[in-house]
Design a protein that fits this description.
QueA-like, 2 domains, 7 helices, Thrombin, subunit H, globular, alpha+beta, 372 residues, 6-stranded antiparallel beta barrel
């Protein structure tokens, strides 16, 4: 076990984005998932004692109590990456679907963007890289550099994604152009994924198997779900000098009446709520912030940006992966490591240093961390 020292020498106003930087050997960025989902490692950070334990993910039930509520994000990743050709020049494009405005009407991230001005038409490729007969035209751009595309030649482009689309892996996972990569189609998706809409996986949920979830239920842990469709902005670094200068990306969520009731009753009873992933936590804390601490079911959008110091109203424990330097996710984990204080950054970076020393695997396909 590793002990860290808490200090209160920082203030929120003095906190800089650079304070959330750390060195990571490139070979620790996981390029493939563990052989089995629950064979990942698990670093357990005890906030009250300042202790770190090194375990396997299969030991998670030992840390959950009878009556705990475990909340997971059931959003399903869509094969959102498409390829296209400019029929006039032969230039090639990569499209990443971001958000659907309506049938065959999408905001996308398009590369190379400089070749895609309003009016540009491109021919979509099928799964073998051949022209499919469908096309897309750029009809609008926005301040973030994204393009609004109108698709034609198919009744609904979403119906073709299973055959034409590729898994939208994050940029730090490298794959050759040739595919398809069946491993990614299966493993960059949780076993409980239900509602399609994410362009990045809620990665903390990737470690769960059906038998592990049943084992948790059998010991008295109640398993509930929320939906937050993860956007590509989850990988965006904070470029502002201070966290307060960062504009958070917006994401769609839904909180069911069943989950809201279960959590509300648990809070009344003094039982714990454990969020699986930063996406799940953001849903619960967003809804609570809008309802004076209560949880009203429904759908909405959130831009909530959680960084130290933060008063958490709902979540008592967080299961998450290891995050990128200077990322909003690392800042959220730092806030959770010491609620209402600014010293959580030291706790998280100390735990990350221990993880590097122990050769944990980082980021989407990497190992997990439980903060209690």
């Amino acid at each position: 076990m590793v002990q860290y020292q808490k200090t209160l020498t920082e203030t929120a106003g003095a906190m800089r984005t650079a304070d959330f930087d750390f060195e990571l050997p490139p070979e620790l960025v996981a390029q493939h998932p563990a052989g089995e989902r629950d064979q990942s490692r698990l670093l357990v950070l005890h906030r009250d004692r300042g202790l770190v334990e090194h375990r396997q993910f299969g030991s998670l039930p030992e840390y959950l109590r009878d009556g705990d509520i475990l909340v997971l994000n059931d959003s399903r990743v869509i094969p959102a990456r498409l390829r296209a050709i400019n029929p006039q020049t032969g230039g090639r494009f990569q499209l990443l679907l971001l958000e659907e405005n309506g049938t065959n009407d999408w905001w996308v991230m398009l590369r190379p963007g400089r070749r895609a001005r309003v009016g540009t038409r491109m021919a979509l490729c099928d799964g073998q890289g051949r022209e499919s007969g469908a096309s897309a035209s750029v009809v609008e751009t926005n301040d973030e550099g994204h393009r609004r595309l109108s698709f034609s030649g198919v009744p609904d482009i979403t119906e073709e994604l299973g055959a034409w689309g590729e898994v939208p892996l994050p940029p730090y996972i490298r794959r050759p152009e040739a595919g398809p990569w069946q491993e990614d189609r299966q493993r960059y998706q949780t076993v409980f994924a239900r509602a399609p809409g994410s362009v990045a996986a809620p990665t903390a949920g990737l470690h769960f198997t059906g038998p592990l979830l049943e084992a948790l239920r059998s010991q008295g842990t109640r398993v509930c779900f929320v939906t937050l469709h993860v956007g590509w902005g989850t990988f965006a670094p904070v470029k502002a000098e201070t966290p307060g200068g960062h504009r958070m990306h917006e994401e769609r969520y839904e909180l069911s009446a069943e989950t809201a009731r279960a959590i509300a009753q648990a809070k009344r009873d003094g039982r714990r709520v454990i969020a699986v992933g930063t996406t799940t936590l953001r849903v619960l804390e967003s809804v609570a912030a809008r309802n004076q601490g209560g949880l009203e079911p429904g759908a909405g959008r959130t831009r909530i940006f959680i960084y130290p110091p933060w008063d958490f109203r709902v979540v008592d424990g967080l299961l998450t992966n290891f995050h990128l330097p200077r990322s909003t996710l690392l800042m959220l984990a730092s806030a959770f490591a010491a609620p209402m204080k600014t010293c959580g950054r030291q706790a998280i970076l100390s735990a990350y240093a221990a993880a590097v020393q122990e050769r944990y695997r980082f980021f989407s396909y990497g190992d997990a961390m439980l903060i209690l």
